[in-house]
Amino acid sequence: MLPSENRLRRRQDFATAVKRGRRAGRPLLVVHLRRADEQAEPGGGYSDSHPHDAEGTPSARAGFVVSKAVGPAVVRNLVKRRLRHLVRERMSRLPAGSLIVVRALPPAATASYPDLAHDLDAALKRLLRTDPASEAGSGPTGSGR
């Protein structure tokens, strides 16, 4: 289980991560990451609505999207539990104040735990590159979108 301060709950926070964050797609999942240091809005953007701001530096927060396309409720919950556990182990790698949304794709229903871990690690590695300009410079040759 993710600690309370590491959970995304509000629709606005999910939308911020998905619409304004960077995306890395893999065969089993898509990861959206919105770093706190990428704020372009005056006043700090979403951080003013974070319920735990009084504690100082906000921690990274994660949310999960597992649609009915993945399978019936039992399968969706299994995938969500696996992803939650995998993300919990990797929270220390995420910048403080960042938002991450992990969206499971239908093949995740039959994927093994190590396969999900591999795809999550690959997506995070791509998203956590320190120089976003280096990815933009790779253009059509390096982007797989």
Automatic annotation (TrEMBL):
Alphabetical keyword list: Endonuclease, Hydrolase, Nuclease, RNA-binding, tRNA processing
Catalytic activity: Endonucleolytic cleavage of RNA, removing 5'-extranucleotides from tRNA precursor
E.C. number(s) listed in UniProt: 3.1.26.5
Top enzyme class: hydrolase
GO MF assignments: 3'-tRNA processing endoribonuclease activity; ribonuclease P activity; tRNA binding
Spans annotated as Disordered: 36-59
Gene3D superfamilies to which the protein is assigned, alphabetical: 3.30.230.10
Origin superkingdom: Bacteria
GO biological process, one term: tRNA 5'-leader removal
GO CC aspect terms: ribonuclease P complex
Record bears the keyword tRNA processing: yes
Known function: RNaseP catalyzes the removal of the 5'-leader sequence from pre-tRNA to produce the mature 5'-terminus. It can also cleave other RNA substrates such as 4.5S RNA. The protein component plays an auxiliary but essential role in vivo by binding to the 5'-leader sequence and broadening the substrate specificity of the ribozyme.
SUBUNIT field: Consists of a catalytic RNA component (M1 or rnpB) and a protein subunit.
Family: Belongs to the RnpA family.
Cited PANTHER family: RIBONUCLEASE P PROTEIN COMPONENT
NCBIfam families given in the database record: rnpA
Protein name: Ribonuclease P protein component
Biological source species: Streptomyces tateyamensis
Gene: rnpA
